[in-house]
Structure formats: C-alpha cells, structure tokens
Amino acid sequence: MTAPALTTDAATTAAAGAGRPLPTVIQGGMGIAVSSWQLARAVSLTGQLGVVSGTALDVVVARRLQDGDPGGHIRRALEHFPVPALADEVLAQYYRPEGRADGQPYAPVPKLRPGSRRSAVLAIVGNFAEVWLAKEGHAGLIGINFLEKVKLATPAAAYGAMLAGVDFVLMGAGIPAEIPNLLNRLAAHEPVSLNLHVDGATQPYAFEFNPADITGGGLAPLHRPFFLAIISADVLASRLAREDLTRPDGFVVEGPRAGGHNAPPRGRMVLDDGGQPVFGPRDQANLEKIAAVGLPFWLAGGYSSPEHVAQAREVGAVGVQVGSLFALAAESGLAEDLRRDALARLADGTLEVRTDPLASPTGFPFKVATLPGTQSDEAVHQARPRLCDIGHLSVPFERAPGVLGYRCASEPVHMYTKKGGDLAETLGRKCLCNALLADVGLGQVRKDGYAEQPLVTMGQDLDGVAALLATHPDGWTAADAVAHLMG
Predict the structure, then answer these.
(1) Residues 463, 304 contacting (CB under 8 angstroms)
(2) Which residue segment(s) compose the domain that 150 sits in?
(3) Does residue 383 lie in a domain region?
(4) 418: exposed, middle or buried (C-beta count within 10 Å: 0-12, 13-18, 19+)?
(5) In the chain, how many domains are there?
(6) Chain centroid to CA 487: how far?
(7) What is the per-residue pLDDT across 227-243, written as a single tens digit (0 to 9) for each?
(8) What is the pTM of this model?
(9) Of the chain's two ends, which shows fewer C-beta atoms within 10 Å, N or C?
(10) CATH number reported for the structural domain that contains residue 232 in this entry
C-alpha cells in the first residue's frame, strides 16, 4: 500500500524536526558537485539548508575513487552503508589506492538505462556517500537537488540519498509531478514506476525500480524527505497542488536570472542583439497566486542580499534560495583556479554571465559565465571533438514499437542525425556532462591526450557577490554568505 502524502504541517515537522522552523536560506544545488558535501555541511551548520547536487553522483563517486579517494571520505561514508556488499562492489570496481597515472583516462560508468543494475548500484552508493558526508557529525538539515531532465537516474539516486537520511529533495528542469509519490513509496522500500517521455512514441512508456531487487530487502522504513518542486510559473504550482499524488510540500519559485538551466521564455523565443533570450512580464510568476496555493515557498534568481530576503518574506515567502554566493565560497566544489578567476573578474568588473539559448542539449536556456580558457570561449569549444560518453542528458526515442534508442544533441552530428535527430538541433550545443565535471576537477582525459575543458554556470545577479567581495576581498566562506543574507 502506498503511504499517504504528507500534509504541509506534517511534512514541515518531519523535515525540520522537533519544532524547528523551516530554513530562511536554501543554498542552491548547483552543477555537478559544485554544491559539494563540504559546502552543504557548512551551510547546514549555520542553521540553514545546505543542499548537495544530486546530478551525476554515480560518475562523481567513481572518479573520486579512481583518484585514490583523497582524504578517505568516500570509504568512510561507505563503512556506514546499510548493505555492505553493495559498497564493496563499487569499491572493488573503481577504487584505486594509488590514483590514476598522469594522462590515464577515467574508466567509464554504465549508461543510464531502464533496468540497469550496475547503474542503479553506483547511483545508490554515490548519492548515499554525498548525503552521509554532508550530514556527518551534526543534526542540521541537508537537501539534495535533482533534475527532472535526468529522469532515468532519479529513483536510484533518491533512494541512495534517503538511505543516508536526506531531509529535503528539490527538483527542477521539468514538471516533477511523480516525485511526491515516488518518495512515499521509496520510504517504504516499495517498487516505483515512472513515466518516460520518448520522442516519436507510438505507445506509452514507463520504467520500474524495485529497491529490494538491489538490496535484498529487510531494511527498516526510511524517513520521507520534504519535497520542494522548483518552478517558474504559478499555473504549475496550482496544477501540482491539485491532487495528493502530485502535491509537493513546498516550492522554490525561480526567476530567469537564476543560474544553470532556465525555463524557456513563454511564447515565441525572441533573442536580443547579443543573442540572449528575452524574458518579459509573462515569465515572472504571480506570487499572490502561488501564496494562495497554501504551501511554503522560497524565491530564487536575484535574491542575494538581506534586502531581497526581507522582500521575499514580505510577499509571503519563507525565504530565498541562493546559488552564486555559495558557488564562489571557499567550500564550493568549483575548481580553485576557476573560483579565483571568477572572483578576480568580479573585482575588476569584467565578469559577465550570459543566457545561452543553445548550449544545453536539453533545449532549455543555460547561464554561462564568460571565463577565458573555458568553453564560454568559442575557440575553446570548437577545439573539443564532439563525443557523448556519459549521456545523462540523452533523450530516449522510439526505434520501433517497444524498442528504444538514445540520442543527445551534443553527440557527433552524424550519429545524431543517423538516429533520426534534426540537424538544426545540434547547432551550438555543448556537452554539459563532461564540461561540468571538468568544473570540479573531474574532467576526462582522452586516450589521444585531449582534456575536457570546463564551462562555468552562474546566476546573472552579480550585485550580491560584488557586495560580499567588497567586505571579503580575499574571498568568503559559506558561513560568511549566510551571515550576509541574514543581515
């Protein structure tokens, strides 16, 4: 039997625990491992909500282990994994005590495919480790951020995070209507099924995940985390809240200035003289209508000052979600040279963040920081041989009734078009999977010597980070960022 959806009051108590209020500040779940466990833990220790990025943690844990597990953190976390045989399986496959030799490529990880046991095990273990480390040694709140666009990863990733006791799950980049019921069922270790969008489908498709098939069963019920749907429109808030099975426990209402993926402008796409999408009044959510839904909500995308926090609370929000202040904090997973370069350019006024309508293979606009040596430089991007060897943003398509293939607009053009893809969809696309892993020092090195180059994403509200840099010219910590926001 499926557990009933939590009421708002019950969910608040379950998530915040023992009468503690919901957090005023949510640290954004950014990129791949930019919202590291170190960053989330530091934010949580201030009494606010620290969030780890749940994107591609299967790849992250495999590559960290191949690099020798610096600090022994992953192995320490996996000593507490409730099914030791699964942890041992991952360690045997990927752990290299001496790390990799110079120029040695990372071993591949299994592609996300329905029913893939190897992929599921790696996702469960990777998400468990990241959340466990973020929660280690304190009682603060920890959340995890997932992308609806990476749906095939969601059940196993969420289950791994829940095995570690995650307090909040946040999801955007799509319509997360199935997630509340998914979390209910996973808390009871029950099988789940998610609908799968398939290009050119002539029939409905879905895929299943049964925790007992992986763990063997017999585990105690899990804590059901508080679920926040990341949305950009009030109509979506009303739609999701209409029924028990789709109703989240709250919302993060994200405006077009937020970093990472953005919802496309409503109506026909119009570009300005710089080639950026033009967002207008229709792209701003009606906050009165969202407040009328009756669920707690936070505002995101340009809320990086104490004045913005106060404004958010005045319109009925619990608080704000903030990314860039934390992406540039000392505990961020962003590679140190990239973080320092961004801070230097922020100081001299040359840091620019553009909304690229083409970069992401998902078709969603994507915020890109213009930093030399990264793929924001078209010459650096053009020097990259097109290759799709991770494929987390691949889209299923129907080869024949009941038979699926997978394609990505960032893969080699001839392969994409051979699979029935439109040539026009490949123009300007970048491989975010590989680029975002390079952002955190986990970029692949090819057998031919090519090293994957980064592509940094950040929000367009630079006023908050500039204000913090003025008072912390040598950089800041996550605690400094929280103190700034809290005034």
Answers:
(1) yes
(2) 8-335+463-485
(3) no
(4) exposed
(5) 1
(6) 28
(7) 999 998 889 999 999 99
(8) 0.93
(9) N
(10) 3.20.20
